[in-house]
Amino acid sequence: MPVSYNGATGTQKARRTSLSQAQKSAVLHGKGPCLVLAGPGSGKTMTIVNRIKYLIEELHVRPEEILVITFTKYAATEMKLRLQSSMEGKKLPVTMGTFHGIYYGILKWAYRFGPENILSEEEKYKLVRQIVNHQDELEIMDEEDFLKDVITEIGVVKNNRNQIDTYESKRCRPDIFRNIYQEYERERKQLRKIDFDDMLVLCYQLFTSRPDLLKLWQEKFQYILIDEFQDINQVQYDVIKMLAAPQNNLFAVGDDDQSIYGFRGADAKLMFQFQKDYPEAKQILLDINYRSTANIVKNALKVIEHNEVRFDKAIKTKKKAGKSLHVQEVRDSEEESRYIAEEIASRIAEGVLAEQIAVLYRVHTDARALVEKLIDSKIPFQMKEHMPNLYQHFIAKDIQAYFRIALGKLTRADFLQIMNRPKRYISRDSVSGKEKSLYDDVRKFYKDKAWMIDRIDQMEWDIKMLGKMAPYAAIQYLRKRIGYDEFLREYATQHQMQKSDLFDVLSEIEEAAKPYETLQEWFTHIEEYSIALKMKEQKSGENRRGIHLMTMHASKGLEFDTVYLIHTNEGCIPYKRALEENGLEEERRLFYVAMTRAKEVLKISYVKNKNGKEISPSRFVEELFEGV
Predict the structure, then answer these.
(1) Does residue 574 have a cis peptide bond before it, meaning omega lies within 30 degrees of 0?
(2) Residue 507 annotated in ligand binding
């Protein structure tokens, strides 16, 4: 039964006095559309909870007529708990959930869908992995990353209602992505299942084809509140517009400056479209940042104000100036990792909890040296995401195969892996299973071809030379003398890959090998690092302790006492691939999000030299010093 309310108590009204004027204005908004621009740390969750209370207690809206949409299950759960707490423990039948959860509920009601009709994320990954493994012309560097990105792109095609024939994948050739997409859709339909993205599309199709059903849901939900509105995609927005009509009691809360999921189909421009679709909408700015010090807020604004497509905002803070922003130039990744490790030890010694310290970076490869340093220094850390192991990359595996053979551990598998990297035109048929006489058996196979025997002799001699070198020198020899660089260039051309991507990986491996004097030392380090990384991932769901390591994307919605932004170099942030895709403004928003995770201390570092080459600080770092 619905719970009825006769108005707010004196205590409840007193609580509202703790809200800022802008928050009160949002909470007390009556009927019709409203766009709330909520900057970082501006108390948007508290505002939404108080808005729900106001609708129930003072506008006498029945709780079951209120729909609240969030972007994660965690956010929905937190909202429910905070509402329950604010209502002195009363559980109310307010509908709260993610877009997928709400739309699934509608489809379940309309089509009698059940759990057996839903393709789980695990099933989806398994299906896409099988399809990808049957693409003969596809070579990938990290399977987990590739699968995640391709699945994201499948969602983008569906959510934005793109034509698959004209869609340009960012991860592989268009024809290969088309094959993967079409095969995935075929298999999914044969299983008679829908995935989470289908829920959105099917809901849109249901409402456009059945106005009678749409009317039922419009009457059910009289007031709609949406959190993180900047993350909405086209199909989600289209369905919400239909659902909110004709009363349009739509309360959208978001921050265009924090729109960082364009790669998933989110479109910050839909916040501007909201103004066009609802010209009568009230617009409110939550202009106080309750999280960060004045210095952090001021510097973050200096960066984001360079974006041209944004709502103008004058953000303030009630906190003191705090410590000055510190930007540190370091020589290279190794020096940066030492600097960060020392900084972390210092903050912990000052009494800051390790769990209140975060190191943020644009992509996982930026953190490789730091992870190795933390493992060696026995500084506890936790990772929110899967971190690809550099040493599992096919280039690293090639190098390790060469080095194992150089150390006298010749196996048929390693020989097959490297015998034509670079091209030597050695046939698999020539390689016997007898490892002790493997070179001699290959020579016998080519006994009538002197030039082939010369190649095999040269190969054996070169590999013996590798065994006498330190790892860094051995990689240099492999690249320049043996010809591995030339192999990579040909490989990239053949597989239509960016040469620079492959050479970045190779240079990173080369750089990582520098501290080690022998090949065996390096192998020992690789084994220890790989074991430690795997253990971290296995324990990721257990009693999390230690400092946080995560990408800037993963830090969204979180806050920490102390934040370090590392590898803030041009090409790292903004990421070079994003620049190629006209993504500069989203990259700047990502940098802004990362800066505003910090409550008290924010430190930024960049390297002068990466993989043996001079590298510039990020343009975003330079923007911090404009006018200084």
Answers:
(1) yes
(2) no
Annotation-wise, does 40 bind a ligand? yes
Class of domain 19-109+209-289: alpha beta
Q: Could you please report the per-residue DSSP string of 460-488?
A: HHHHHHHTTS-HHHHHHHIIIII-HHHHH
Q: Is 45 annotated as a binding residue?
A: yes
Rounded-to-integer distance, Cα 603 and Cα 614, Å: 22
| Torsion angle (degrees, nearest 10) of CA 375, 378, 380, 382 | 10
Q: How far apart (Å, rounded) are the C-alpha atoms in residues 411 and 438?
A: 9
Residue 467 known to bind ligand: no
471 is in an annotated binding site: no
> Facing residues of 252 across strands?
35, 226
Cα 47 to Cα 53: distance, rounded to the nearest angstrom = 10
Task: Name the pairing type of β-strands 250-254 and 34-38.
Answer: parallel
Residue 44 assigned to a binding site: yes
Average pLDDT score over residue span 187-211: 92
Q: List pLDDT tens digits, range 56-101.
A: 999 999 999 999 999 888 888 888 899 988 888 788 899 999 998 9
Q: In the predicted model, is pLDDT for residue 475 greater than 90? A: yes
Whole-angstrom distance, CA of residue 564 vs CA of residue 594: 9
Q: How far apart are CA 257 and CA 259, in angstroms?
A: 6
Most confident of 5-9, 307-311, 440-444, 489-493: 307-311
Joined together, the tokens standing for residue 462 give 């070169």
Region class of 65: left (phi > 0), else alpha (psi between -120 and 50), else beta: alpha
CA distance 402 to 424: 15
Place of tokens 């280039």: 395
Domain boundaries, the chain: 19-109+209-289, 118-192, 315-383+542-623, 389-522
The CATH number of 118-192, from 3.40.50, 1.10.3210, 1.10.150, 1.10.10, is 1.10.10
CA distance linking residue 378 with residue 372, whole number of Å: 10
With beta carbons less than 8 A apart as the criterion, state whether 218 and 250 touch: no
In degrees, to the nearest 5, what angle opens at C-alpha 514 toward C-alphas 511 and 518? Answer: 135
Tokens of residue 597, six digits? 């995770």
The pLDDT score that the predictor gives to residue 3 is: 30
CATH 3.30.1330.30 fits domain 389-522: no
**Is 115 annotated as ligand-binding?**
no
**Mean pLDDT, the chain, integer:** 90
Residues near 560 by Cβ (< 8 Å), separated by ≥ 6?
A: 356, 357, 358, 548, 597, 598, 599
Domain 19-109+209-289 identical in fold to domain 389-522: no
> Cα separation of 339 and 355, whole Å?
19
2.170.130.30, 3.40.50.300, 3.60.70.12, 3.30.300.30: CATH of 315-383+542-623: 3.40.50.300
The residue among 195, 246, 187 whose CA lies nearest residue 217 is: 246
Is 39 one of the annotated binding-site residues? yes
State how far the Cα of 621 lies from the Cα of 625, in Å rounded to an integer. Answer: 7
